Amino acid sequence: MKTNIINKDCLESIDYIKPNSVDLFFADPPYFTTGIDWDNQWKNNTEYYDWCKVWIQNMHTQLKDTGSAYVCCQWPHSGQYQVMLQDAGFIIQNRITWKKDKGRGSNSNWKQMHEDIWFVTKSKKYTFNINDVKEEKEVIAPYRDEEGNPKDWWFDEEGNKVRLTHPGNLWERVSIPFWSSHEVKSYAKSKKSPNNIYDKHSTQKPKDLVAKCIIASSNSGDIVVDYFGGSGTTAVACKETDREYILFEMNSTYCDIIKTRLQNEDPSEYTKKYSFKVTATVR
Description:
Elements: E1 3-6, E2 22-27, H1 45-62, E3 63-73, H2 75-87, E4 91-99, E5 114-121, H3 130-133, E6 135-138, E7 154-155, E8 161-165, E9 170-171, H4 182-185, H5 207-217, E10 223-226, H6 233-241, E11 244-248, H7 252-264, H8 267-270
Parallel strand pairs: 1-11, 2-3, 2-10, 4-9, 10-11
Antiparallel strand pairs: 3-5, 4-5, 6-8, 7-8
């Protein structure tokens, strides 16, 4: 398995990744919307967009013709991301809305409750494993066949009538906060893990969210690249789903966190237990 964790700026990826060699990108770049140092390193939007255009173009070059990419962002820059991705040659397949209910809100504005994730491809031929990401949904009007048996639905473990449904682009089941979850306890200081030496990553994505993209848009053994490694969620999700991965991360401490998570999180315990995975079968 390719398990490269590269302590470099993602703009140096051209020295490590060949053109047309990556099956999937998951990109969670700095948003340039917060006061965090690494998220606030540009003087203005023009500088930020110029920087984005470089790594987006590199991503397009390194992606296979049959590959896909997911790019996370917040609404102030979402429209410009669509333009930059299209200008680089990507085909916009969808804009996913991730419901992110966090914070206390504002007395003078609507509470921010979502982030955007652009789903793009390099061509019209790409991987999308729909059957691996279908979701169980409660049946409102359950049909029965002529013999009175359930038709395309069943009872789940709680006795609800459910069926499989195609997933939409509004993701409400992957939520935060998740700071007390195993994926944080595996490396960060908390009440339940006081002996850990690292602080919590300030912008960590839930593993369910990353894994959903990986499972839908790649296959076992495929190469997944993350330009912004952070706490290593992409690496852990790849390990659990039998994908190869290459992560770029400028911060050496975060590189140590990634290695710690890979050692501590047991894939045999968590594989196929994502919130979106189908656990029941039609009977």
